[in-house]
Design a protein that fits this description.
Elements: H1 6-13, H2 17-26, E1 33-34, E2 40-41, H3 44-58, H4 63-67, H5 71-80, H6 84-100, H7 104-118, H8 120-140, H9 146-166, E3 176-182, H10 189-200, E4 204-212, H11 214-224, E5 228-233, H12 242-251, E6 258-262, H13 264-267, E7 276-279, H14 282-293
Parallel strand pairs: 3-4, 3-5, 5-6, 6-7
Antiparallel strand pairs: 1-2
Helix pairs in contact: 3-5, 3-6, 6-7, 6-8, 7-8, 7-9, 8-9, 9-10
């Protein structure tokens, strides 16, 4: 069983901690437990309850009305929500719930069903990335086990690899990207999805994977001479020196344009080398690919 703080519930549901406390006082659906030092905590079931109630409340149901519902009725009402955004949020919540329960079969079934209906690209943008943002919160606060994260990210990784292998682009370009993650970066899902987007749009890709030493990148750049390098930084190790990496990209990458996306592009405030280009959102990456493919 996981033990969640009220701040975890706030981050995962979007409901302010103050509001959650009011719900506890006025209604019956939340009954937090307390530690020996009188600090409230919430179980898997309470997390699922808050996610469900927050979703219904967001899409028009009053809390007092929800409080009178039986669990089966709450489930029925959630499934009846027809707004596309509500459906996406419901699916993301279900993925979170199955992850905390370690029910990987249900997790994969929901993910596969969404991919079959929407395709891998929409599935990633609409439910996988929002899901990863939520479990990132739990990871940072220490409220999921490493095994939980590994199980679900491996399922997602398998789906992306299958999509990449089965991708049959209509058009092709001569532009080649070298994709890799630097030493200390092991979170590969963002890079795998970039590979899929590039391949589906007809670009050539040399994929090195995660945790690649700079010397290996330099060797490949010298012999393969790609048009661009691309990296996506999710959560580097504490001793990763981003400034040093940028220096290497500027002086040792043979003037190859280097595209970088991910969290560190938002945090870095110093001057960026001329041959390095930050893409601060998925939309910017897509726009870049569209621009290159039209040349």
């Amino acid at each position: 069983m996981n033990a969640f703080t009220i701040k975890d519930l706030e981050n995962l549901s979007g409901i302010k901690a103050h509001t959650i406390r009011i719900w506890e006082q006025r209604y019956n659906f939340l009954k937090p437990q307390r530690t020996t030092t009188n600090i409230r905590y919430y179980t898997n079931e309470e997390l699922k309850t808050v996610l469900n109630i927050a979703l219904l409340n967001k899409y028009g149901f009053k809390i007092s009305h929800i409080d009178r519902m039986q669990p089966d009725e709450i489930s029925t009402r959630i499934l009846s929500l027809g707004d596309p955004k509500a459906i996406q949020e419901r699916v993301v919540n279900e993925l979170v719930q199955h992850m905390v329960d370690l029910d990987i079969e249900k997790f994969e079934k929901i993910l596969t069903g969404y991919i079959n209906v929407k395709g891998i690209e929409r599935a990633v943008m609409q439910i996988i990335f929002p899901f990863l943002e939520k479990i990132g919160i739990l990871w940072q606060t220490g409220h999921i086990f490493p095994g939980q994260e590994h199980l679900v990210t491996n399922v997602i990784r398998q789906k992306l690899i299958v999509a990449i292998e089965g991708c049959m682009p209509v058009t092709h370009t001569d532009t080649t990207f070298l994709l890799f993650l630097p030493e200390g970066e092991h979170h590969e899902l963002g890079l795998l999805f970039t590979w899929y987007m590039m391949k589906s749009r007809g670009f050539r890709v040399i994929y090195l994977g995660a945790n690649v030493p700079v010397r290996d990148v330099i060797h490949l750049l010298e012999f393969k001479k790609p048009d661009y390098t691309f990296i996506h930084l999710t959560a580097t190790c504490p001793n990763f020196n981003f400034e040093k990496f940028l220096h290497n990209a500027e002086h040792r990458f043979f003037n190859t344009p280097t595209i970088i996306s991910g969290l560190l592009t938002h945090q870095y405030k110093k001057k960026v080398p001329a041959n390095v280009h930050f893409k601060k959102s998925l939309q910017e990456v897509v726009e870049m690919l569209v621009s290159l493919s039209s040349r």
